[in-house]
Amino acid sequence: MLRRVADMTTAGTQVVALLALSDDGAPGYDREMAAALAELGVPAFACTPDSFGDLMAAAIERRDLAEWAHRQQGGAGPDHQRT
Fold first, then answer.
1. Helix ranges, the chain (H)
2. For position 6, what pLDDT does the model report?
3. Best CA proximity match to 15, nearest among 27, 24, 7
4. Structural domain boundaries in the chain
5. Whether residue 25 has pLDDT greater than 90
6. Are 17 and 40 in contact (CB under 8 A)?
7. Is the pTM of this model over 0.90?
8. How far does CA 24 lie from the centroid of its chain?
9. 76 burial class (0-12, 13-18, 19+ CB within 10 angstroms)?
10. What DSSP character marks residue 25?
11. Is 8 exposed, middle or buried (0-12, 13-18, 19+ CB in 10 A)?
């Protein structure tokens, strides 16, 4: 699978991997696979159904997903001020 993903990204395909969609606070997924996908530049994430749309939009727009997640938890990024 990783070889195919690598070939796809090399060919210019944007790949996004949803590892788990769960209402649970800590969904289970293969962390080694997530790390391998990240090394290929593929956003790989788990999220709740409520967050899926916004997170997918952030991934497609190639935004920093760690920053996105931090903001969702109430953090402020460099261009985001809490009021």
1. 2-10, 31-39, 49-60, 65-72
2. 96
3. 7
4. 2-72
5. no
6. no
7. no
8. 17
9. exposed
10. S
11. middle
